[in-house]
Known about the structure:
Layout: E1 2-6, H1 14-17, H2 22-33, E2 38-42, E3 58-61, H3 73-88, E4 92-95, H4 97-105, E5 109-112, E6 118-126, E7 129-137, E8 139-143, E9 148-152, E10 161-164, E11 168-171, H5 179-188, H6 195-207, H7 212-237
Helix pairs in contact: 2-7, 3-4, 5-6
Amino acid sequence: MHIAVLMTNTDESKFAQCHPKDGEKFAAMIHSVRPTWQVTSYAVKDGVFPADDARFDGWLITGSPASVHDDAPWIDQLKVLIRQLDRKRAPLFGACFGHQAIAEALGGQVDRNPGGWVFGLTETMMEGQPIRLYASHIQQVVRLPKMARVTGGNADCPMGSFAVGNHILTTQYHPEMSHAFITALVEEYADELPEPVVTRARADLTTHQADSAQIAERIARFFEQGQDSAANRSMAVT
């Protein structure tokens, strides 16, 4: 399996330089459950996109402090690519910004979270099962694309995960983040976030960790199922 990671993280701060890039984080996540898979990253936030004829077994869009509403050429180009992948029914996973970009590209809507920041550790549902994931967002999907179905969420984020057919799956959260990274991220932004958000994040991270292995396995199986579906479509055509 060969997965393309489309990196959208625009953070070039000193803090960011002290930690692995998102391409490395997602590669580590994938390799924790599928060590033989190949992962190739593209810094789409810098306008670096795969060639038009590039072929991958799966595509993954990362998180970002950028907003899907920002007036940036790379965001428009990414949305065009998302629509192309959807038409081809290519397996596509989106996390945080990726989740929101897929929703917007396919006719959904993203807006500010009425409850404000969700930061640290949260418990959500995904396909009927509770799962703990790391979070860092103040915007979220508020209306799904017409063809999408909710596959998970919670009271703070009712559309925390959605799917389109068998070829698109998303989550508002960050399956790639390690416990050490999100803990450091909370401290990095402690002076900029509301005090109750920071207090809660610190308390939650002291007592719990994300179900990282569970979400990594879920994402890997999603890509494997997508490959099986593609093979079946190819057999049907022949």
